[in-house]
Amino acid sequence: MSREVFARLVPTSVRNLASLESGQSPSPVIQKNLTELQRVISALEDVVKQEAIGPWMDQPNAAFEGLKPIEVIERGEIDRIWRMLYQLQSGDAF
Fold first, then answer.
1. How far is it, in rounded angstroms, from Cα 33 to Cα 10?
2. The dihedral of CA 27, 53, 58, 87: what is its sign?
3. I need a labelling partner for 12 at 20 to 30 A (CA). Which of 21, 43, 54, 78 fits?
């Protein structure tokens, strides 16, 4: 996943993301977002190849009415991705 896509998901600037990567402590809000993002990426790895997650995040998806998953997360609707993951893992039809 590109740094730009990851920064959008957190959300933070690419510059701030570089600071975090170099050891700066995240704010409580950024830490919460990082934890949630880590959880959803880990769950995605159960159903999608790891190298496909970044491109998948940035592609329009019919399951989200044509929105990109990154846009769903940016809108604060990560629960829609969790619901999709549940349906994929349980075999429930969409």
1. 6
2. negative
3. 43
Rounded to the nearest angstrom, the gap between the alpha carbon of residue 28 and the centroid of all alpha carbons in its chain is 18
Alpha helices in 1-94 (DSSP H): 3-9, 14-21, 28-44, 50-57, 69-74, 78-90
The residues, any chain, with a CB within 8 Å of residue 89's CB and separated by 6 or more, are 46, 47
The structure's pTM equals 0.80
- 35-70 pLDDT, tens digit per residue, is 999 999 999 999 889 999 989 999 999 999 999 999
